[in-house]
## 1
Amino acid sequence: MYVCICHGVTEKDIKKAAKAGAQSLQDIKQATGCATGCGTCADVALEVLQNAHSQTTPEFLKILQPGTQWKEPTAA
Ligand code: FES
């Protein structure tokens, strides 16, 4: 599925960039050119990126990713 019509970027391209380390929309822009034209694809691109990470990274490892902040567990 095409995410970015301006630059011909597909969902697969974004997932590939995510696998290669893209963590933010800015990373996706640099890796693929997505969202650097009209910008209307930015929200969908970010959603695809977030889905790619949630599918490829087990929840317990997300704390180890750059940009993730530690949250103290709350008592029940
Ligand atoms: S559709 Fe992606 S920049 Fe225009």
## 2
Amino acid sequence: MGCGLALGQFETRGQFTASHRPYSIAVGDFNHDGILDLAVATACCPNGGVYILLGNGDGTFKPGMYYSAGISPTSVVAADFDHDGDLDLAVANSLSDYVSILLGNGEGHFAPARRVPPLPRPRPAFPAATSMAMVGSIW
Ligand SMILES: [Ca+2]
Ligand SMILES: [Ca+2]
């Protein structure tokens, strides 16, 4: 993970563990401290999940917190799906027909994943538009 410098250059600040095979990252302030955090979708071992890395504000992150998020999560987006002011996550599960929704509590933690009803094929490898539209219809 690098930090931006003047003149378009990046400085390496370190590498942060998020299990095996991270596929997708969503950025947001999940705990309302004014510092950007990361949600990392990992599709491996055995079912993958989402790792939440809370930012320290200096380009480094606290150790990841794991959340189960369906079968083979390969893409994640962050938005406030239930309109409570806290960022939530929508995760595409590439080896199933589901999108998993994890509601945030505003303190950097998330409720267990809920499945959005099956999507029509093709399967949701990249959920942004489709999942947001579907989530909007169930809350
Ligand atoms: Ca934060
Ligand atoms: Ca929310």
